[in-house]
Specification:
It contains 15 helices and 14 strands. By secondary structure, the protein is an alpha/beta fold. Strands 5-6-9-10-11 form a 5-stranded parallel β-sheet. The protein has a 4-stranded antiparallel β-sheet with strand order 1-12-13-14. The protein has a 3-stranded parallel β-sheet with strand order 2-3-4. Helix 4 crosses helix 5, helix 9 packs parallel to helix 10 and helix 10 packs parallel to helix 12.
């Protein structure tokens, strides 16, 4: 089948129905028989390098099974799961518990991260060498590594192991109890704000360390215009850095906030100029990929308003329709660029093969976002009630049908 580089060169006509001939010998006529509409497209399996599947430790929020089914519905055939679990995957034994759950429950490819520090506490390095063969990379996502010396040591060891450091960047001393962006909405409604400096100051530190150590470095979910500028300049200097942003940061900002926990995530929705800078970043290549930061919680945990709800929203089942509707249909980016951001670039950076993976989309099908229809256990999304285009009809992973829209 077509490999990743062939997909990079693909044009819209190649992505359309005729592309099925590359895959048809792997499936029955019953599986593919409905794919004959002119407006259907076949896209390579998406790859999300930033999801939370909550097992082991928090299966009431999500499981490997429900998370992977949710991903398959969204057209994803590969995901990388973050380490904020119980136990934290900070040793081969702890990582092994997660690998067993993945082997039993995943319907797509699931690649776990190992934590950078023991218990994600930032006090001592995890057993990176022991986990290197099974961890896709190392991250303390959800917490920034506060110690410069600890991060330098982690980068040096990760480089020696041929692994990447993937960083949630946040300076704890600058948070001051904030929970939404420190901007106009926070001031108007009496909320505690999170300043952009809490993100970009740690990115600046890590870029300096990555340049010093030569470690491959990836920045999670950037949200601030200063972060885009810092990474752009670092790339010009030859720093081995990539970054991601999330769909919601590209299409929403603080002007869309409501007094509801489904609008609370970390980092927060920032100002309009931050959103515009992120869009510019995907246009000029500063931002390499889009990851959902799919972070399910229970309904009760998200019912406490902006101040007291848990941080995090779900996004695997809405990412492509949202970005297709808001960025492709409006002419901001091409469909091919969106495929690069969702499928090609993350696989290239993280060394994840394409395999015989693809999804089939009806781009003319509109729908209203209704979280009650999600396959994820999580229901919190700021998109509730939004009208979007693009319905996934079929997802195939390793030649197996892992999702089929039963309404056709």
């Amino acid at each position: 089948m077509a490999n990743v580089m062939e997909m990079r060169k693909a044009n819209t006509s190649v992505l359309r129905t005729g592309y099925l001939s590359l895959f048809a010998n792997s499936f029955s006529c019953q599986d593919l028989g409905f794919v004959d509409k002119e407006n259907y497209v076949v896209l390579p399996g998406f790859c999300d390098v930033h999801v939370h599947f909550r097992e082991p430790g928090f299966s009431y929020k999500e499981t490997v099974e429900t998370g992977s089914r949710s991903a398959a519905r969204g057209g994803y055939t590969a995901v990388c799961t973050m380490p904020n679990l119980n136990p934290v995957p900070d040793s081969a034994a702890h990582l092994g518990e997660q690998l067993e759950l993945i082997a039993r429950g995943a319907c797509i490819h699931v690649y776990p991260y190992g934590s950078i520090t023991v218990g994600q506490k930032g006090e001592a390095l995890s057993a990176l060498a022991d986990m290197a063969k099974d961890a896709i990379a190392f991250s303390d996502d959800g917490r920034g590594v506060q110690s410069e010396e600890m991060m330098r040591e982690a980068m040096l060891l990760a480089k020696s192991l041929g692994k990447m450091i993937v960083a949630h960047c946040e300076v704890n001393d600058l948070l001051h109890g904030g929970y939404i962006h420190d901007g106009i909405y926070a001031k108007a409604h009496g909320h505690k704000g999170i300043c952009s400096a809490s993100e970009y100051e740690q990115i600046a530190r890590d870029l300096r360390l990555a340049e010093e150590t030569g470690c491959a470095y990836h920045v999670c979910h950037i949200s601030a215009k200063e972060s885009v500028a810092l990474i752009r300049e670092a790339k010009k200097r030859g720093v081995n850095v990539t970054c991601e942003t999330a769909p919601h940061y590209l299409v929403m900002d603080e002007n869309d906030l409501q007094e509801d926990g489904r609008f609370k995530m970390n980092p927060p929705l920032r100002a309009k100029e931050d959103r515009e800078a992120l869009v510019e970043g995907i246009l000029d290549g500063t931002i390499d990929m889009i990851a959902t930061d799919h972070a399910p919680h229970s309904a009760e945990e998200k019912s406490r308003g902006l101040a007291n709800s848990a941080f995090g929203i779900v996004g695997l089942e809405t990412a492509f329709p949202l970005l297709y509707t808001k960025l492709v249909k409006t002419g901001v980016i091409t469909l091919e660029r969106l495929v690069e951001l969702l499928a090609v670039n993350p696989r290239e950076r993280f060394g994840i093969p394409m395999g015989n993976d693809f999804s089939v989309w009806d781009l003319s099908a509109g729908f209203t976002v209704d979280p009650r229809e999600f396959l994820s256990k999580g229901r919190a999304t700021p998109l509730t009630g939004m009208e979007l285009l693009g319905r996934n009809m079929l997802t195939v992973c390793d030649g197996r049908v892992v999702y089929k829209n039963e309404t056709v």
